[in-house]
Design brief:
Blueprint (H helix, E strand, L loop, with lengths): L5 E4 L2 E4 L5 H14 L12
Antiparallel strand pairs: 1-2
């Protein structure tokens, strides 16, 4: 467990608490703009 406002692991963004919402939102936008990470896999097959 990391004591950071935002943690990213292969495109999955998490935060500690609602107090970190500003940092969380900024990171979510950044991750969306980056696109799919190589480590991510498709969770549902079509």
């Amino acid at each position: 467990m990391l004591d950071q406002s935002v943690v990213v692991d292969s495109g999955l963004v998490t935060s500690r608490s609602p107090d970190d919402l500003g940092d969380f939102n900024a990171k979510i936008v950044e991750e969306i703009c980056e696109g799919k990470h190589a480590e991510q896999r498709q969770s549902v097959t079509a």
